[in-house]
Design brief:
heterodimer, A: about 350 residues, mainly alpha, D-Maltodextrin-Binding Protein, domain 2, 2 domains, elongated, B: about 325 residues, alpha/beta, Rossmann fold, six-stranded mixed β-sheet, four-stranded antiparallel β-sheet
């Protein structure tokens, strides 16, 4: 063609498409809430719930006043006296973690739930208190040195997890719903009937996503750093690179989920199907290594697991990119394969 | 080869089948430069499939399509720059403004008219900063036209441009199409409104079941059914509801071309109304029949369709 497009932004279709995406996003108040406000609210909530407190005092009960006194001599316990029936009821309702029962022969029985970690702790402390008060001496002298280090708290663990989740949600929802809506309203068909280069339409989603990403990540991590003192031990440039790579991988996945669906219902079902396993398995709120060994290969292959591992590595341990090649490979595979498939199967009408 | 002398649109042996439905069944068509051409037919006649094949949105099973001397296989990029398209039921994003929507479409074309000019042509000046979601049906349709025009196309495809609009909005859009015709563009439109086709089109193809059953200018088509006037009447005979009439005396009247019955209503196509009507009255009286209804109107494309298929345009 003799008269090619000018470099003027006004007449650049890629610029116009990206600007339209951006405007449409900003004119959707709900989207702004879920993308910018919700992650911060979640971080605040979790930060409050798991804030650092003095070690918990455990609630226990005993059947005789003498036993109660011995238990209360340990600062880690508060003890009350009740008969065995009341004590059992207290165990069942969770108002006591352990019941110490004085047997007629002078021995003591502990009644507690051994699957509850707090109850197991109560068992150890209670037994030590009773044995010490009954005259037992430590064979080895020991004292305690306490540390409360930044980076080892739950909030430090959960912020990279939330970041990974926030990179996934808007990428998949944002792309998926916008594309399926445009298909449903026959706008996609109208666009391919125009001279618009098709790749630019898809690229405009990725570009507007990346612009939004900068705002989102800076706001969220800035908040986490200022309000909770979450550490940034790795290179910030590498952290930025990871965020872009992760966002592009999830955008490719979003594109794939939206490439054929004709209705919003079908699309949202598909998106939940894609995201639900990752919400559960990928270690947003607790370590993914807790899952049985047999499903670990599957868990490790999920993009969100790789994303969160890499983010935690960078932020908490200061790991460099060269030491997380397996995660980067997994993310790249999730970028290239879904993108290639969706380009092939994408339905414009 | 001099492209500017050939036809704008050339279709040869076009066929398209969906599952077990033959949507387009061996279509041949030629549309000249600067012509406003109408595809008229009931819903399901294959108009939209035909126009979408022309627009390069649907691949025909067989047959050839040539637009402006180019075809979709080798000239798609150039064709997309040179044609303007308005599709049935496109919904532009509700939260964009009129101006933003047109500017987006303008950016797809290498050359064309300015956004302002396009807004002016579509008479949307007052709505330029309004969001699409707040526009009326007619305004949305004019926005679709503005987006089709913004590349200054040589050829314009309009698929049912006035379906669903109120009468005033329809006339408004017709005026817009008139203006575009004056500018010498080739326009191809589909419609199931015969009055629209008569009002706008230089030539009309009447489609039914994927075939063109009649082709010509609206006056030619109307003349082809033999009479410019249609007489409709209903009769009762004495004492009974019996509606049987002997049609032979009616048909033999000078100037009566055909007779048919539709839902108890007799229809005659008549060329000389003033001489035929007294003879019709006499013939019915002779059979002892009483008229319960009687009216006449000028023949329209609707009557052409009815005459050709025995069905009304909007039956289906």
């Amino acid at each position: 063609m003799s008269n090619g497009p000018t470099s003027n932004l006004e007449t650049s279709s890629l610029f116009q498409l990206t600007a339209v995406r951006f405007k449409l996003f900003l004119r959707e108040p709900e989207a702004i809430f879920w993308t910018f406000v919700f992650p911060i609210l979640l971080a605040v909530g979790l930060g409050l719930a798991f804030r650092n407190r003095p070690a918990d005092v455990l609630q226990v009960a005993a059947t005789t006043p003498q036993l109660t006194q011995k238990l209360a001599s340990d600062k880690g316990l508060t003890a009350s006296t009740m008969n065995e029936a009341d004590g059992t009821h207290a165990l069942a309702t969770g108002s006591a973690l352990l019941l110490a029962i004085q047997n007629p022969d002078g021995s003591v029985s502990y009644k507690y739930d051994d699957t509850n970690p707090d109850a197991r702790t109560a068992r150890l402390i209670a037994d030590r208190a009773i044995q010490t008060a009954s005259g037992q001496h430590d064979a080895v002298r020991a004292d305690n040195q306490l540390v409360h280090e930044k980076g080892a708290r739950y909030i430090d663990f959960v912020v990279p997890g939330l970041l990974g989740m926030n990179l996934m949600g808007p990428a998949i929802w944002g792309l998926g719903f916008a594309i399926v809506e445009a298909r449903q309203k026959k706008l996609l068909k109208r666009l391919v009937a125009s001279p618009m280069p098709k790749w630019q339409y898809l690229a405009s989603f990725l570009l507007s996503r990346l612009i939004m990403l900068v705002i989102e990540v800076v706001v969220f991590l800035g908040f986490a750093g200022l309000a909770f003192g979450v550490p940034f031990r790795g290179s910030l440039w590498q952290l930025g690179f990871l965020c872009i790579l992760i966002s592009l991988s999830f955008s490719a996945l979003g594109l794939l989920t939206a490439s054929r669906a004709k209705t919003m219902e079908a699309a949202s079902g598909l998106m939940n199907l894609v995201m639900l396993p990752m919400w559960i398995l990928s270690g947003v709120f607790f370590s993914a290594s807790r899952f049985p060994a047999i499903i670990q290969p599957f868990v490790r292959a999920l993009p969100l697991t790789a994303a969160i591992d890499a983010l935690r590595g960078n932020m908490l341990q200061g790991t460099s990119l060269s030491q997380m090649l397996s995660q980067i490979t997994i993310l790249l595979a999730w970028l290239v394969i879904p993108f290639a498939i969706s380009l092939k199967i994408f339905r414009w009408r | 080869m001099n492209q500017s002398n050939g036809p704008s649109l050339l279709l040869r042996g076009l066929r398209k089948t969906y599952a077990d439905v033959v949507a387009v069944d061996g279509l041949d068509l030629e549309v000249a430069r600067g012509e406003c051409f109408g595809l008229l037919g009931p819903n399901g006649a294959g108009k939209t499939t035909t126009i979408e094949i022309c627009e390069g949105l649907t691949e025909p099973d067989s047959g050839t399509v040539e637009l402006l001397g180019l075809n979709w296989r080798t000239g798609a990029n150039e064709l997309r720059q040179r044609i303007g398209i308005q599709l049935q039921e496109t919904q532009f994003p509700d939260k964009l403004t009129v101006e933003e929507t047109i500017r987006l479409f303008r950016s797809f074309f290498h050359k064309g008219i300015s956004v302002e000019e396009s807004i002016k042509t579509a008479q949307l000046e007052e709505k330029r900063t309004s969001r699409v979601g707040g526009l009326s049906g007619g305004q949305k349709q004019r926005l679709a036209m503005a987006c089709a025009l913004v590349g200054d196309p040589e050829m314009l495809f309009l698929d049912e441009p006035t379906t669903g609009l109120d009468p005033q909005a329809r006339r408004h859009l017709w005026d817009l199409v008139d203006e575009l015709k004056q500018a010498g563009r080739t326009i191809i439109l589909t419609t199931h409104y015969m009055d629209e086709a008569e009002r706008l089109c230089d030539r009309v193809a009447i489609m039914d079941h994927g075939k063109i059953i009649a082709l010509g200018t609206p006056p030619q088509l109307i003349a082809s059914i033999g009479g410019e006037h249609i007489v409709e009447f209903a009769v009762t005979s004495h004492g009974t509801e019996e509606n049987q009439i002997d049609t032979a005396p009616l048909i033999s009247i000078q100037g009566i071309q055909s007779h048919r019955v539709d839902a108890g209503l007799h229809q005659l196509s008549v060329s000389e109304l003033h001489t035929a009507v007294p003879l019709i009255f006499a013939a019915l009286r002779a059979q002892g029949l009483h008229l319960s209804e009687f009216r006449t109107h000028s023949a329209t494309l609707e009557d052409v369709f009815v005459g050709l298929t025995g069905r009304n345009l909007r039956d289906e």
